[in-house]
Design a protein that fits this description.
Length: 164
C-alpha cells in the first residue's frame, strides 16, 4: 500500500420536511439519504430515542458498522498475507454512547466481537494475533477518541464443513 491522501465524498439529502420545515422540534422528520456516486442509497435517520425512524440506519449504527467493517477488512488482508485461510467471518459489535445533560453525547466504548472461521491446521495463536495488528492499522479505529476493544473468537472448520 502506498501513502498519500484519499478523499471520500458522500451526498446527504434531508428528506424529512413534512411541509412546515423545522417550524418546531416535532414538525419535521429526521429522515435523510446518504449516497455516493454509483452506489445504492442508504436510508438514514436519527436514533428513535431522538425522534428518528427505527427502520433506517442512524449515524451511531453506521459508526459502529464502520469500525467493524474496517477491522474485518484489515484482518482478512493480514490473514491472506500470513497464509491463514479464513473461510467465514462475522461480528456482532456493540457501541456505547453516553448522553450528557446538555443533550450532547459521545461514544465511550465499542466492543468488536468477531468470530473467525479458518481451515484445519491453522495456528490459532497466529490467527488471534492478527486482531491486534488489524486494530493498529484500521483507519477508522485510529481516528476515534474512544476505546475500541476486540473480543475475538476462532472456529476451526471440521472435516465435514471443509468438504462442502
Amino acid at each position: 500500500m502506498s501513502g498519500g491522501a484519499h478523499e471520500y465524498r458522500v451526498h446527504l439529502a434531508w428528506t424529512g420536511n413534512t411541509g412546515s420545515g423545522t417550524r418546531d422540534y416535532r414538525s419535521y422528520e429526521r429522515a435523510h439519504e446518504l449516497q455516493t456516486s454509483g452506489k445504492p442509497v442508504i436510508p438514514a435517520s436519527s436514533d428513535p430515542a431522538f425522534r428518528g425512524d427505527g427502520a433506517r440506519y442512524n449515524p451511531e449504527e453506521l459508526l459502529v458498522a464502520s469500525l467493524s467493517s474496517c477491522h474485518m477488512l484489515w484482518y482478512l488482508h493480514l490473514a491472506s498475507d500470513a497464509g491463514i485461510v479464513v473461510t467465514a467471518y462475522r461480528d456482532d459489535p456493540v457501541g456505547v454512547m453516553r448522553e450528557n445533560a446538555d443533550g450532547s453525547g459521545e461514544f465511550v466504548d465499542v466492543l468488536l466481537r468477531p468470530t473467525v472461521t479458518t481451515r484445519q491446521g491453522t495456528d490459532a495463536a497466529a490467527a488471534a494475533a492478527l486482531h491486534g495488528r488489524a486494530h493498529a492499522l484500521c483507519f477508522i479505529a485510529r481516528s476515534v477518541n474512544f476505546p475500541v476493544r476486540c473480543d475475538a473468537s476462532l472456529e476451526i472448520e471440521s472435516e465435514t464443513n471443509a468438504t462442502r
